[in-house]
Amino acid sequence: MWNHSMQLKRRSATPLLVLLPVLALGACQTASLGEVASIQAAQGSSENIASLTSVIDRNPRDAEAYNVRGSAYGRAGEYRQALKDFDQAIAINPQFYQAYANRALIHRYLGDQASAIADYNRSLQINNSYDVAYIGRGDVYRLAGQSRQALQDYERAIQMNTTDPRAYNGRGLLYQTSGQHNFAIEDFATTISLAPDQPNGYNGRGLSYLALGDDENAFADFNVAIKLNGEVAESWANQALVYEKRGDTARASKSFARAAQLDPNYKPAVDGLARTRRTG
């Protein structure tokens, strides 16, 4: 399944989110932390899928085997195959709340947000203590601009002492969007504690540091994000923002160019590159 297993104590009281208009940051986080990526890379391999297929061939009524293979297909980016396996797992066991949540994530990747919400709702009807479903539904709500519903879901998971960093990352993004950067920094710090090998928390915290005028800490966080994974466009674009703010147009343009190379559709990188090339 697509979750994490580390623990961290958290304060019991959480501040109320006040949705205030703020200036948009130069780059924004939209990626969710730890979803398909939380499956070990080997689980999406053709060898592992073949092994799981052998299990299913021996026992075609094994709902768990379909669920695991569906997760492997999801990790490999074979979303249609994943969907078929989760459908089968649920047909065999209609109370399989984990399979509903996994299928919801595939619906989301395929752009079917209504089906994703319906599957998360069904998962929670079966098990209203399943933090993964609250977090996943919260991500759908957040990306749809339904911030209050998203906050409620993240808060519910956090109150259940979830160890899934996506809850803190998601809530941090909401705080960041509303200009509550100190709260955002605290949530991103928790994200980092739970997933120190992932760049998301560093990028999020860096952007809030940057919004507060703390360029040094922002720059340090963006550099760590790049060191952890140099293939993430957002990290390079964020680094470029610091260079640009410092007046180092040449380095800013180079970092924006790297971000645009990694993701030609990443607008902050494309816009930043055009901007720095004009002024360079």
Topology:
Elements: H1 46-58, H2 63-75, H3 79-92, H4 97-109, H5 113-126, H6 131-143, H7 147-159, H8 165-177, H9 181-194, H10 200-211, H11 215-228, H12 233-245, H13 249-262, H14 267-279
Signal peptide: 1-26
TPR repeats: 63-96, 131-164, 165-198, 233-266
Protein name: Tetratricopeptide repeat protein
List keywords for this structure.
280 residues, mainly alpha, Serine Threonine Protein Phosphatase 5, Tetratricopeptide repeat, globular, disordered N terminus
Query: Low-confidence parts lasting 5 or more residues at pLDDT below 50?
Result: 1-42
CATH topology of the domain at 26-162: Serine Threonine Protein Phosphatase 5, Tetratricopeptide repeat
Query: Helix proportion of residues, in percent?
Result: 55-70%
Q: How many helical elements?
A: 14
Brief overview:
With 280 residues, the protein is mainly alpha-helical. The protein has a domain at 26-162: Tetratricopeptide repeat domain (Serine Threonine Protein Phosphatase 5, Tetratricopeptide repeat), CATH 1.25.40.10. The protein is 66% helix and 0% strand.
Folded structure, characterized:
It contains 14 helices and no strands. The chain has 280 residues and is mostly helical. The chain has a domain of 137 residues: Serine Threonine Protein Phosphatase 5, Tetratricopeptide repeat. α4 packs parallel to α6 and α5 packs antiparallel against α6. It starts with 45 loop residues before the first helix and ends with a helix. Keywords: Repeat, Signal, TPR repeat. Pfam families: TPR_1, TPR_11, TPR_2, TPR_8. InterPro entries: TPR-like_helical_dom_sf (IPR011990), TPR_2 (IPR013105), TPR_rpt (IPR019734), Ycf3 (IPR050498).
